[in-house]
Amino acid sequence: MGHDMSEEEIQKHVRIYMFVFGALLTLTVITVAASYLHHVVPMSVSIAIALLIAIVKGSLVACYFMHLIDERKMIYLALILTAFFFLGLLLLPFLTNLDQVQT
Amino acid sequence: MGGNHESTKTDHPEDFDHPEEHHHDQGFWRTYIFSVDHKVIGIQYSITALLFLFFGFCLMMIMRWQLAFPEQPLPILGALLGDGMPGGVMLPDFYNELGAMHGTIMVFLGVVPLAVGGFGNFVVPLQIGAPDMAFPRMNMYSYHIYWMGGLIMLISFFLPGGAANSGWTSYPPLSVIATMGQTFWLLGMVFLITSSLFGAINFITTIIQLRAPGLSFMRLPFFVWAQFVTAFLLLLAFPPLEGAAILQLMDRLADTSFFLPSGLVVSGQALELSGGGSPILWQHLFWFLAHPEVYVLILPAMGIVSEVIANNSRKPLWGYKSLVYSVIFLGFMSFIVWAHHMFITGMGTGMAAFFQTTTMIISIPSVVILTALLLSLWGGSLRFNTPMLFALAFLPMFGIGGLTGLPLGLTATDIPLHDTYYVIGHFHYVVAPGTIFALFAGVYFWFPKATGRKMNEFLGKLHFWPSLIFMNGIFFPMLIQGMAGVSRRLWDGGATYDFAQNVLYLNEVMSYSAWGLGLVQVFFIFNFFWSIRRGEKVGRNPWESTTLEWLAPSPPPHGNFDTVPEVYRGPYEYNVSGGDKDEFTPQYKPAGGGE
Amino acid sequence: MSSEIPYTVDARPDTGLNNVKIGIWLFLASEVMLFGSFFASYILLRVGAAPGTWPEGASILNVPLAFVNTVVLITSSVTMVMAWASLKRKSLSKYKLYMGLTILCGVTFMVIKAIEYNSKFAHHPPLLPSTSTFLAIYFTMTGLHALHVVGGSAVNAYLWGPGSKLWKSDPEMFTNRVEAAGLFWHLVDLIWIFLFPVLYLL
Amino acid sequence: MERFLGLPEQASAHAGQIDYMMGLVHVLMVLLFVGWALYFLYVLYRFRSSRQPKADSTGVKSKASSYVEAGVALFEAVLLIGFSMPLWAERVNDFPSEEDAVVVRVVGEQFAWNIHYPGEDGVFGRTDIGLIDVESNPLGLDTDDPYAKDDVVSLNQLHLPVDQPVLIYLSSKDVIHSFNLPHHRVKQDAIPGLSIPVWFVPTVTNADMAQRLGQESFQFEIACAQLCGLGHYRMRGFLTVETQEEFEAWLKQRAEEAAAASSADDFWNQ
Ligand code: HEA
Ligand code: HEA
Ligand code: CUA
Ligand SMILES: [Cu+2]
Fold first, then answer.
1. Sign of the CA dihedral B243, B244, B249, B252?
2. B366, burial (CB in 10 Å: exposed 0-12, middle 13-18, buried 19+)
3. pLDDT tens by residue, B297-325
4. CA–CA separation, A42 vs A38, rounded Å?
5. Which ipTM score applies to this complex?
6. Whose CA is nearest to atom 8 of ligand 1?
7. SS3 at position D103
8. B510 falls in which pLDDT band (50, 70, 90)?
9. How far B41 CA lies from chain A's nearest CA (Å)?
């Protein structure tokens, strides 16, 4: 974020914040509501829904509250690197469980 | 807020403040203990880390007695070591404590703090022409957190049951049912990790932000590149171990069972646990850190060696670009090879194929780096001073260490070699005559910058040659023993086993070499302290070097440079212009501007 | 001072960033990896659990309370970003108001958390980390997250109180600090956004 | 080659393959090392500053080093795809069926190896950690289970018939151990909570090995390769490879001993 912002720009930002706030609240309600669905749909589906919503919410926070939507190249590079290793880390349990020697 | 952003940009650095004039007396505590000056912090780190290295080595020298002469009382010292050595004879538990602590201290309290905290702190800001690190206060904290972590580790020796005794790898369930020392080990690790994280953030920010005008990334000295990549490894690989340490602390203190499966029976007694955990999980989290960690041990060393070789071969490094790309690639790949330490845990074909392939791939950039350094020598005018000797010896020693990594990295050949002395031999070749030699090279090389005096050359050579011989006397026999199948971490060095009998004689060879190595360090220690006061006085650039740190006074004052340096060229322009006398063009020399 | 460090406040022209901004983002990257290791452990333990032994979060944990806490934390994120925007508008009083609200939210979150923990301990038989692996990972992850909330709130409180004096002498540096604290606070929020469904709902 | 490298004598069907590959890797290593070392020594001599007062900054132009690097990469690829992966697949995929193999359960504990044979019926009896008794029932075998009646249990004594595939189910009671048969090129961690299969074909009996080495007698050893506590160094077991007849005789004898011991127990319990 450059340091000189005009009043209008700030106004615009604030409007976006309020919009994101609303979206986050709505999505939270949806997640909770959807979690009661799992008696109807299979577990895997409800896991997918919950995680999908969480990812959308997380992205909203990151992009707008944390201003990632317009950040500098250097920060993107560092975060892409992190994201890559983070995914590697999450892969680790699957690697372990799926590939244990068995007869 | 001085208007210093202005002055960094100006082409007339004369109006930059002169540090000396502002040097007010800050008192002993602020100057030497709670200093925020990167040079003081670097020296604090270096001395503390050297002491830890020496301590870690002493632990090993005691262990080597037991390995050479199992169950014979250790003369003199044995009586002083208390409970672990009744009558001077080492107990198996005490052996395990010493082994675990040797590994931990060498890696986390010795080499990393010296290579990164010490050399990184002292040299990096100077080499990029910065007045200090980006966050000086955080820098100070990271040193103080470091020694506290070290202190916790030391205290653990005096606990009932002694220090941690489950190896530096701390595999559960063994580590979870171990004595209280393990709790301290974990706490200590949390401190050390936190300290390293602060350091890593600081280094990355410093290198991105504080490069002098004109110093583009591709003009950075290779040492800075190595530190840059190292910092990323620390930043991203350490947190998972911190997480794992927290989980293991929970297992030990809150009776959870993250790493404990159901149905454990220890000494015939079923453990009361909720169970359901996984011992392999720890191994994954540990090695997710610890493999990048071993590159943390080697990259700064490669950086030091490159600086010393460029300087003392008096010519540009061969293939600077390929060095830089290799080191970046190496850093990147080091995150996806971790499970090569776990081939024997019962790994299926898919995972084994993946991890041995990545392991073979990661050996290629190492080969490229070594090749570039070797080719750099061709056509040079080699000066064999002490730092150069250590740097040169690094090459074949790292060569042996690296090459022995190959049979370990292939699953089929890892079957007989895993957890034998072959592994111990492999990595000691890379860390001891490899990294330790590089660090020695660095000490001899930058000592004049830190103190304004050179270390004694004759003593230096007296230190180097026997060290080289003894190092090989210790570690080559390990490869032989490992081939013969002798397991590591054996209290009696394998004497129990029939199949080990015909390589047992090597235990004595190794032990005598280790004590010999210990003995000749006296030359170094003496030289070090003697030279601080009595060494030959030198000017700013005793080695006739091209990089920026040699522009600053020796020792550099607070704020480092008289004026903000500007950079006009790449890092290693030795003898690039004609003539038949040795010459060099420092990075801060403007284009066309002759002598 | 002679050794003033460049770009502590102003952006370096070629990177477009000041030191604090890079520093805080790197720190956040390491935090992501830290929590990543917990999420990885969670997955591994859950996938590896004997069939039928992994409880459904909602059957043990209190979803309504956690829902309220989610709302509280999201709100605090908004007030945090509003606090920063107020500084951009050069209004310290507005800033104090929003920052105060953020701190209040943080405290509310902790109070609710404490109620939640207490009801677990008071349960018969008590539900402790050692009761089951699920509870173990629940307490560890939420506990560590709670520590982050406490730490973040402490920083916020400092910036609300004594730290805000800096506004007078160096408003830009102060704004940068608030921004950095904000980034940390949003990350804490973001982590909770994932913790909530993963632990409570699935 | 295994002689040259100092590996233990080979005693299993796959040992030769592993050793062959071990030889190949070491040939690559030695070639690289010696090649570079010769270059290195020459350079140190040729370009010392007294002989070469001014460096020539041109640098090496030859492409030879790139070819060497490419060669190394190629060699590694061959080792990987041609040797390591197939060998590994054979070890962890191609398990013999339980009918064709001698099936044994090996359970590590601090600091001993419990060996458990299923007996005539080929089915392991039920075990329960509640029944474990350090002295009399280290495995916690449930003697009321009909499958358990004929099971044979021994401590640190693993007997196997020669030239027959062996399928071992490896686990541990307490901490991680590692089941290492140096002569058979077998090593596998024993991890509590998991039962990990290992297989191999022993090809040399104790007696043959004694003869090969010109010794009076010979005993294969089981070593523990993973740090497991203060007795790690002495967690040594014995493997006896013998003819089918000897093996069966031993099993029978063990079964009788066990029966005698348990009836003695009963006597004292009355
Ligand atoms: C600085 C530390 C360091 C470095 C750089 C390396 C480098 C490598 N390591 Fe090593 N390793 C360790 C430290 C290190 N290692 C440690 C500490 C352990 C044990 C941990 C424990 O269990 O306690 C270990 C264990 C270890 C294992 C696990 C073994 C086991 O437990 O079974 C494996 C397996 O793949 C492995 C592989 C490799 C490989 C392929 C490389 C490659 O990167 C090497 C590439 C280099 C080369 C191929 C050299 C090129 C040489 C030339 C070009 C010739 C030059 C010649 C002259 C100059 C004459 N290492
Ligand atoms: C960086 C890592 C590092 C380094 C440098 C070393 C260095 C040495 N190591 Fe160690 N070692 C490990 C890491 C390291 N080691 C690890 C991780 C293990 C495995 C542990 C485990 O099983 O869990 C291990 C295990 C290990 C074993 C196996 C034990 C066993 O399996 O039972 C042995 C056996 O001989 C050994 C020996 C040595 C020796 C003789 C040195 C020598 O090379 C030491 C040389 C040291 C110096 C030369 C220091 C000199 C310093 C000074 C002189 C300071 C001067 C001070 C001032 C000026 C103030 N080490
Ligand atoms: Cu069992 Cu080592
Ligand atoms: Cu590794």
1. positive
2. buried
3. 999 999 999 999 999 999 999 989 999 99
4. 6
5. 0.94
6. B405
7. strand
8. very high
9. 27
